[in-house]
Design goal:
Structural class: alpha+beta
Distance between the termini: 53 Å
Radius of gyration: 19 Å
Helix content: 25-40%
Strand order of the largest sheet: 2-3-9-4-5
Number of strands: 21
Number of helices: 8
Shape: globular
Largest sheet: 5 strands, mixed
Strand content: 25-35%
């Protein structure tokens, strides 16, 4: 068990509040590991986060598979499955599932370069939120690197529709997300939330929100090979119109907050921090990935610039 008195949290806080730090790429100061259960596979998984050099990006590595066949870059066009989670794959057929909560923590903590080593096919679910991964990052510490960060600017409105899901991306001076969900259960009902995403807002408003599921769906999902590791220790359980977890909810609208968490994790697969507004209506992993594919389908849709250029452009508009 990690000691929450570790002074890594002070390092993390200083990193969050200093905008100038976020002009530069970051990695971890130290490697750190944890063990847990795969939400869908039910397998015991060991995860190790290892510092990486500037411009490496986020790389997953399966330690149980030899050589390059075990390496998968965390990028949107390596997504091979979006059924109940986001799964990455490579040409060798290697996959790593349920990456979204970890990717949300990495993005929410402004980490640019990292090797994530796993000895199995899925990121451990931990408590069903991003908070345990944020805590690991706090304990390891964040190290500023000498290379400038880049951001991907959304240049124009784009949208996709998949069945009931609608997703939009629009130009914005900040990275912002809104999600709109509607479930036929009084435990959830209709929930909508808009949030401008920063390290601080992610830490305070989003990272603790847990995944959720309906008890009547568990047997069906397990027949599909999913949710084998699901329990009330790592998900909010809903039975009809009631939340059945003894400790209740962490937020009154924890469900929509978790949808924003998932969106942050999925959109982190853009390959650089986004500057734009994303809106998802009844949207899940498939829609999140589809909007990224639509964004990058035309060079007219986006521009990649350095973070200091972004700050300079914003300052010029304010002074004008």
């Amino acid at each position: 068990m990690l000691d929450r008195t570790n002074n890594g949290s002070d390092i993390f806080s200083n990193h969050m509040v200093n905008d100038k730090v976020n002009l530069y790429q970051s990695t971890l100061k130290n490697s750190i590991n944890c063990n847990g259960i795969g939400l869908h596979s039910g397998k015991k998984i060991s995860l190790n986060m290892i510092p990486a050099a500037p411009n490496t990006g986020i790389i997953f590595r399966r330690s149980d598979i030899c050589g390059d066949a075990g390496i998968i870059k965390a990028i949107y066009d390596n997504v091979v499955d979006t059924k109940m989670n986001t799964t990455l794959g490579n040409d060798a057929g290697t996959t790593i599932g349920t990456i979204e909560h970890l990717m949300a923590a990495i993005s929410g903590c402004a980490i640019d370069n990292l090797i994530i080593e796993l000895n199995g096919p899925e990121v451990p679910v931990m408590d069903g939120s991003s908070e345990p991964f944020v805590f690991l990052i706090e304990c390891a510490g964040i190290e500023r690197q000498n290379s400038i960060r880049h951001t991907i600017i959304v240049n124009r409105d784009i949208n996709i529709k998949i069945n009931d899901c609608e997703a939009y991306m629009k130009p914005s001076d900040v990275f912002a997300i809104s999600c709109d969900i509607n479930f036929n259960s009084k435990a959830i009902g209709h929930q909508e939330l808009y949030l401008e995403i920063s390290c601080e807002s992610f830490r305070q408003e989003i990272c603790r929100a847990r995944t959720f599921g309906f008890i009547h769906e568990i047997e069906f999902l397990r027949k599909m090979g999913l949710a084998k590791g699901a329990s009330l220790d790592n998900a909010i359980g809903i039975n009809g119109d009631k939340v059945i977890n003894e400790d209740g909810l962490r937020f009154d609208d924890e469900f929509v907050r978790h949808k924003i968490l998932d969106s942050i994790g999925d959109l982190a697969l853009a390959g650089a921090p986004l500057t734009g507004y994303f809106r998802g209506i009844k949207c899940g992993h498939a829609g999140n990935n589809a909007i990224l594919r639509e964004l990058f389908s035309s060079d007219d849709n986006w521009t990649k610039i350095t973070m200091d250029q972004l700050h300079s452009n914003m300052a010029m508009r304010v002074s004008a």
